[in-house]
């Protein structure tokens, strides 16, 4: 019995050193990926008048929804990457994606408000054009870029998952590409067409 105990006593340190040696032979787990740099776009809303509140909500919605681009007020109006301006006509925007150093413009037109459309939805939709999204007027209310398509009762101002993913793809490389749509402006007529009469 004493011989067995002596043998076991001799084996235990040997087994432990083998286990420890085997564990140290495994490579360390890979380091987590470095956080992605985010493209920051600055805007000037000093000429947006009564749209200020709607712009703040729209910007917050986009900042909460996408990951590769962030919108923030410019330090000085002349340094902004894009501007918001109140107008009396129909809303319209530069079609992006706008990148730092390029100039874009959003005109927030009163005619859409007169037609009964929600001001935050309008501001968020027009900002979507700045970020490179096209209109999808035939889409449901859950799609921000369906714009006036679902009618004035639609007040959704949040992009859906597909729209958010498109914007993230537009800014994924964090480099300034050649403009996809140079100087193209989208004019959104937020008016529900009258139903056509059948004879």
TrEMBL record:
The keyword Zinc belongs to this UniProt entry's keyword annotation: yes
Enzyme Commission number(s): 3.4.24.77
GO MF annotation: an example: metallopeptidase activity
Signal peptide bounds: 1-25
InterPro entries membership: MetalloPept_cat_dom_sf (IPR024079), Peptidase_M7 (IPR000013)
Keywords of the record: Disulfide bond, Hydrolase, Metal-binding, Metalloprotease, Protease, Secreted, Signal, Zinc
Main location class: secreted
UniProt cofactor(s): Zn(2+)
Catalysed reactions, semicolon-separated: Hydrolyzes proteins with a preference for Tyr or Phe in the P1' position. Has no action on amino-acid p-nitroanilides
Transmembrane feature ranges: none
Domain of life: Bacteria
Cellular localization per UniProt: Secreted
Stated family: Belongs to the peptidase M7 family.
Protein name from the UniProt record: Extracellular small neutral protease
Species per Swiss-Prot/TrEMBL record: Streptomyces varsoviensis
């Amino acid at each position: 019995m004493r011989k067995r105990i002596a043998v076991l006593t001799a084996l235990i340190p040997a087994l432990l050193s083998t286990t420890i040696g085997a564990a140290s032979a495994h490579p360390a787990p890979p380091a987590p990926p470095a956080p992605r740099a985010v493209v920051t776009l600055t805007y000037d809303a000093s000429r947006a008048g009564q749209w200020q509140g709607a712009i703040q909500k729209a910007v917050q919605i986009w900042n909460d929804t996408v990951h590769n681009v962030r919108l923030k007020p410019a330090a000085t109006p002349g340094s902004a990457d894009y501007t918001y301006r109140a107008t009396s006509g129909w809303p319209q925007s530069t079609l992006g994606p706008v990148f730092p150093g390029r100039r874009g413009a959003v005109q927030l037109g009163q005619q859409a408000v007169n037609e009964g459309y929600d001001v935050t939805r309008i501001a968020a939709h027009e900002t979507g054009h700045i970020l490179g999204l096209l209109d999808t007027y035939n889409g449901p209310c859950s799609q921000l870029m369906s714009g006036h398509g679902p009618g004035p009762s639609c007040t959704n101002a949040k992009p859906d998952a597909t729209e958010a993913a498109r914007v993230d793809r537009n800014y994924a490389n964090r480099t300034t590409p050649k403009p996809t749509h140079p100087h193209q402006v989208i004019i959104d007529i937020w008016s529900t067409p009258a139903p056509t009469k059948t004879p």
